[in-house]
Specification:
It is globular, with a radius of gyration of 19 Å. It folds into two domains: 171 residues, Peroxisomal Thiolase, Chain A, domain 1; 149 residues, Peroxisomal Thiolase, Chain A, domain 1, CATH 3.40.47.10. Helices cover 31% and strands 22% of the residues. By secondary structure, it is of the alpha/beta class. It has a five-stranded mixed β-sheet with strand order 1-7-6-4-5, with helices on both faces. A four-stranded mixed β-sheet has the order 8-13-12-11, with helices on both faces.
Length: 361
C-alpha cells in the first residue's frame, strides 16, 4: 500500500510592524510609484527587535498544529527552511522543536534560499513515504530585515519578514505530492549573495566596514534567469505528475516580483485568476513566501479538497523548485480548530520566552 504525505495543518505569522513605500522614501532615494511599478510591492512586514526566526516559526507552527489537531509531542521531525537563521549554529529547527515541546522530534534547517519551502516539501514527503516518519512539521521563515543594507535601494525595497508552516502526515489515502522538480546552478552564486560571514570570507573589521554582511543582488540577471527557470521547473513538475497547465486549479508562485510572476504566467499561458498574489502586502519573504500565499489562498476560499496546486519558487544559488500537490484537507478546519487563526498581529507567545536574539552587524 502506498503511503502518501498529506498536508493536514497550516498557519502563518507576519510581524505587526508595517513598513510602507512612503516610509522607505524617507530613508533612500525612491518613491511608492517607483517601487510599485518595478516590483508590485506596496508594503512589507518587519520583525520587532525582540522577534527572531524562531519566534516567527513557533507562532506559525502552533496554528498549523492546531488545524491538524496534533500536539507538538506527536511530531517526528521539524524542518525549518530559512536563509536567515537565529545563529550559524545551532540549527533553528532544533530551537523551534524545543519551544513547541516536540520532545520526540528530530530537527534541522534547510537552506535553499527562496526555494527552501519547496525543497522542504520534497524532503518531508520523502521521509514520510519511506516509512521513517509519520508526522512532519515544515516551516518556511525569514527575518531578512536583519540582513538588509537600508542604504541600498536596489535591495531594501524588496524584502520582508514572515513565516508559514504546514503539517504533513502519513496516509494511505490518495493526494499530496504528485510531481516535483528541483534545480540548482552554482554559476549564478554571486547573483544573490551575502558575501561575508562564512568560511570563504570570515567576519572581521574589514568585512563589516565594507558592508559585506548584507544581501547583494544583480537584479537584471536574476530577473532574466528567474523567469526562464520558474517556467521550466513548473513544466517539468507538471510532466512528472502527468498533468498540464490547464489541470492546475491554483498557482502559488514565489512572491519575489509581480513582473516575474506575470512573465511566468504569460509563458505558461495560464488564467491569471488562478495565480494567488499577495506580494503587495509582504514583499519578498523568501522561504516564507509560498507557504504564506498558501495559507491566505485557503483562507480566501480559493482552495478546496481535490484541487491541484502548483507551488514554484526561485532563489539564490541559483536554486529553483516546483511541486504539484493534490489538496485533500477541508479548509474549514482552520476555523474550527481551537485557538487557530492567521496571525497578523500580536504574537501567540512573547519573544521574551526565547533566547536573546543574536546581534547582526
Amino acid at each position: 500500500m502506498t503511503t502518501n504525505a498529506l498536508i493536514t495543518g497550516w498557519g502563518m505569522y507576519a510581524p505587526s510592524r508595517v513598513l510602507t513605500n512612503d516610509e522607505l522614501s524617507t530613508m533612500v532615494e525612491t518613491s511608492d510609484e517607483w517601487i510599485v511599478t518595478r516590483t508590485g510591492i506596496r508594503e512589507r512586514r518587519i520583525a520587532a527587535d525582540d522577534e527572531t526566526t524562531t519566534t516567527l516559526s513557533v507562532n506559525a507552527s502552533r496554528d498549523a498544529l492546531a488545524v491538524a489537531g496534533l500536539d507538538a509531542s506527536d511530531l517526528d521531525l521539524v524542518i525549518v527552511a530559512t536563509c536567515s537563521p537565529d545563529y550559524p549554529l545551532p540549527a533553528t529547527g532544533v530551537l523551534v522543536a524545543t519551544e513547541l515541546g516536540a520532545r520526540h522530534a528530530a530537527g534541522f534547517d534547510m537552506q535553499a534560499a527562496c526555494s527552501g519551502f519547496v525543497y522542504g516539501l520534497a524532503t518531508a514527503t520523502s521521509f514520510i513515504r519511506s516509512g521513517m516518519y509519520r508526522n512532519v512539521l515544515l516551516v518556511g521563515v525569514e527575518v531578512l530585515s536583519r540582513f538588509i543594507d537600508w542604504t541600498d535601494r536596489n535591495t531594501c525595497v524588496l524584502f520582508g519578514d514572515g513565516a508559514g508552516a504546514v503539517v504533513l502526515q502519513a496516509s494511505d489515502q490518495p493526494g499530496g505530492l504528485l510531481g516535483m522538480d528541483l534545480f540548482s546552478d552554482g554559476t549564478g552564486a554571486e547573483g544573490i549573495i551575502v558575501p561575508a560571514g562564512g568560511s570563504a570570507c570570515p567576519a572581521g573589521p574589514t568585512t563589516i566596514a565594507e558592508r559585506k554582511h548584507f544581501i547583494r543582488m544583480a537584479g537584471r540577471e536574476v530577473y532574466k534567469y528567474a523567469t526562464r527557470q520558474l517556467t521550466e521547473s513548473s513544466l517539468s513538475a507538471l510532466r512528472t505528475a502527468g498533468l498540464t497547465v490547464d489541470d492546475v486549479d491554483q498557482f502559488l508562485f514565489h512572491q519575489a516580483n509581480l513582473r516575474i510572476i506575470e512573465s511566468v504566467g504569460s509563458s505558461l499561458r495560464l488564467d491569471p485568476s488562478k495565480a494567488y498574489i499577495n506580494i503587495e502586502k509582504y514583499g519578498n519573504t523568501s522561504a516564507a513566501s509560498v507557504p504564506m500565499a498558501l495559507v491566505e489562498a485557503v483562507a480566501a476560499g480559493r482552495i478546496k479538497p481535490g484541487d491541484r496546486l502548483l507551488m514554484a519558487a526561485f532563489g539564490a544559488g541559483y536554486t529553483a523548485g516546483a511541486a504539484v500537490v493534490e489538496w485533500t484537507a477541508d479548509p474549514a478546519r482552520a476555523f474550527l480548530a481551537p485557538g487557530a487563526q492567521t496571525r497578523l498581529g500580536k504574537p501567540r507567545v512573547e519573544a521574551s520566552e526565547f533566547a536573546e536574539p543574536m546581534a547582526v552587524s
